[in-house]
Amino acid sequence: MSQRLGSHPPRFAAVTLGLLTGFSGLLSPLHAQDTDQLRNAVPAGQQPAVNPVPIQSGTQSAPPAAEQQAAPAQLPKPAPQDSVVSRLIARLMPSEHVSGKDLDDALSARALDLYIQTLDPLKLYFLQSDIDQFNRYSAVVDDHVRAGNLDLAYYIFERFTQRVDQRVAKIHELLESDFDFTIDEEVIVDRDAAQYAHNAEEATDRWRRQLKLSLLDLKDSDEPVVGQEARDQLLRRYDRYAKRWRSTSSDDILEMFLTSVTNSYDPHSTYMSPATLDDFNISMALNLDGIGASLGEKDGTTQVKAIIPGGAADLHGKLKPDDSIVSVGQGKDGEMVDIIEMPLKDVVKLIRGKAGSTVRLGVRPGGSGNTEIMEIVRAHIELKDSAARGKVIEHEVPGQPGMLKIGYLNLPSFYMDMEGARRNDPDYRSSTRDVAKILEDFKQQNVAGVVLDLSRNGGGSLTEAISLTGLFIDQGPVVQVKDSNGSVQKYDDDHPGTVWDGPLVVLTSKLSASASEILAGAIKDYHRGIIVGDPQTHGKGTVQTLMDIGQSLFRIRRANYGALKVTLQQFYLPDGESTQLDGVAADIVLPSVIAKMPVAEGDLEYALANDKITPAPHDLYRMVPADLVNALRVSSQKRISEDEEFTELMRRIGLYVDQKDLQTISLNEEKFMQRRAEMKAQKDEQEKEIEAQLGTEEVFHDTFYNQEVLNITQQYIEGLRAQNLARAN
Predict the structure, then answer these.
(1) Do 700 and 688 form a contact (C-beta atoms < 8 A)?
(2) Considering the domain boundaries, does residue 89 fall inside one?
(3) Which regions form coiled coils (predicted)?
(4) Separation CA 256–CA 249 (nearest Å)
(5) Are residues 411 and 460 both part of a single domain?
(6) Helix %, strand %, coil % for the chain, to 5?
(7) Please, are residues 178 and 231 in contact by the beta-carbon 8 Å criterion?
(8) How many Cβ atoms from other residues are within 10 Å of residue 702's Cβ?
(9) Cα–Cα distance between 590 and 616 in angstroms, integer?
(10) Domain end: 377, 397, 421, which one?
């Protein structure tokens, strides 16, 4: 199997509960010697033939024994094929990755750090002495992966499980003691600010504070848990956590270790174990129903990465990117199961279910604050639920008589009915076809301008992005794609003519990603329309290919050996700028909470840098005069400064930023509850602002934010008319 993945921001090792879209692609064949080695490795109980590279650091040639610790019983051992898979990953990453980088010592150091982070993201388990020992081998991870030697991965994992057992034993002791919630002390909640404990005493003190925070969290929730019940819940949580690691399989260790290696190239390149690949294929086939959200794991909690347009969570309206899910209940009254420190794949199993059934989620908005219970009815994701929709709005022109007709077009994704297209069905659905029909209807109703809302569009079909852009430009390049060998392929709209040649405003947000950035960027490069919204779009300017390792080796899928998802191409706009990292900048920026959320490409570790290639010649329209855009900015800023709702919004944005940037939390109960009350007081208003920007079921939400979008559109239309530029030419 080889599949191009060009949609959805996300950016983490994530599981998607709903619709995924992608592209087909080709991969270079692997070497025959690896096929032979893997065939020889298949028989159970036999170790693959490898020539391990000794760990070399000073005079040390092998990892030292764990410091006076007994090894956990029944540690997993590498599977026979793991060595060959490791060597294949080491060969494929330099040859297939768009950067063309060799797996060298610099990437080796990154990989080691990422592997340690995967195991201990908040620096709660390892001691500083452990880290000092591990760092002696930071320059040999690449050598080991090339040799198929997994000793270092298992050595670190063994040390980690020893530390987990130690900490959980100490947690049992601490939860039998009393906690003083009246004293002024804090707990560090920011990984960058945290330090590894230097000894057992420091580790114990950090865990005492962590447990106080957990008890306060349980007390401050929609369904408060206090006293012995709260302590028992924490005991169960950490006993489950220790059991989780003791039951880790060799596949799990291989996935964590090799993904740390691939993530050292960029955050989207990952290795999927056989079980993860099976889950991914189920998601792609849409054989299971769910809530329609992309979930990832961060610091021991399940985090919402993206909401799938048209899915159950999207229609529900309250679950947002960056929220944390801490508990799951089945039906309207099923027990709420604590899922903190639960493996993501187990969380997914709890959240998935039949369409029409109910799941209850305990959610911390923004990853902090009090827990809110959200009741969501699971559903199939239908094409029509994420389809383009339009509405003609009669906008009252401030200070002028009469109304101005503006066409508002909401496009949640770039989609195509692939089966219908293959059958040559004359009426198959696609985003381009649907948008063209809406634009024709707008013209029949004599709209003066069009707003194309991509603010919650996470991407989709590249082909559709190109053809849909062609509805607004005559002909010419829409996107350029660079491969790992440095060659550049230009993709044009080759259909003459346009469907809409009048004033165009493209509304974007930090969640507008991938294919939506291609359209917005092309419109900007052609000077065809103006971009309004967050300072920049998401910044995902790369394409991933999914390689089924077993099928690549044997040409048929004889067995499941997992898959490599590798970033092999990068997007560039007609003018040669990449959408990677920097996204597409707005011509006119509006205040927004979303813009401050850590949900963009630039918020990911080791995201690929932005660069440029040679521009592709193309037409320039006279639809974005510099003097008009400057006048629009000035007018919009004046309206915003005088608007009470925008003033209140900017106050809430400031509070959100202050809370997001906190490195510590007070463990004084009075101060803790006071802070949570302040956060809760602004949460409802914050949700309204996000809803105003993203919307759900309605095509257009009549809010102060969207009214300002219409005000900008109206002034843009009038400005073009004044300069006799109301049509593209």
Answers:
(1) no
(2) no
(3) 669-696
(4) 11
(5) yes
(6) 40, 20, 40
(7) no
(8) 10
(9) 31
(10) 377
Give which of 541, 547, 604 is closest to 91, Cα–Cα. Answer: 547
27, 545 contact by CB (below 8 A): yes
Is the same domain home to 579 and 709? yes
Distance CA 558, CA 31 (A): 17
Task: Indicate which residues carry an active-site annotation.
Answer: 514, 525, 540
Residue 48 scores a pLDDT above 50: no
d(CA 505, CA 67): 63
Structural domain range at position 343: 287-377
Establish if 329 belongs to a structural domain.
yes
Contact criterion met (CB below 8 Å) for 271 and 258: yes
Note whether 242 and 168 are within 8 A (CB).
Answer: yes
Q: Are 667 and 187 in contact (CB under 8 A)?
A: yes
Contacts of 209 (CB under 8 A, 6+ apart): 185, 186, 187, 667
Q: What is the pTM of this model?
A: 0.83
Q: Are 1 and 27 in contact (CB under 8 A)?
A: no
- Looking at the fold, whether 466 and 585 belong to one and the same domain comes out as yes
Tokens of 82: 């793991």
Task: Tell me whether residue 563 is in a domain.
Answer: no
DSSP-derived 3-state class of residue 507: strand
Say whether 580 sits in a helix, a strand or coil: coil
In this structure, the strands spanning 293-298 and 301-307 are: antiparallel
In a domain, 228, yes or no: no
Token pair recorded at residue 392? 């003609």
Number of structural domains in the chain: 2
419 and 495 assigned to the same domain: yes
User: Where do runs of H (alpha helix) occur along 79-150?
Assistant: 82-96, 105-119, 128-135, 141-147
The pair of structure tokens assigned to 171 is 């947690």
Q: Do both 643 and 508 map to the same domain?
A: yes
The model's pLDDT over 166-192, given as tens digits with 9 standing for 90+, comes to: 999 999 999 999 999 999 999 999 989
Residue 441's alpha-carbon distances to 136, 256, 418, in angstroms, are 67, 52, 25
394-444 pLDDT per residue, tens: 998 767 777 899 999 999 999 888 878 888 888 888 999 999 999 999 999
Same domain, 309 and 366: yes
Last residue in a domain, options 355, 377, 399? 377
Is residue 376 a contact partner of residue 359, using CB atoms and an 8 Å limit? yes
Output DSSP code: residue 578.
B
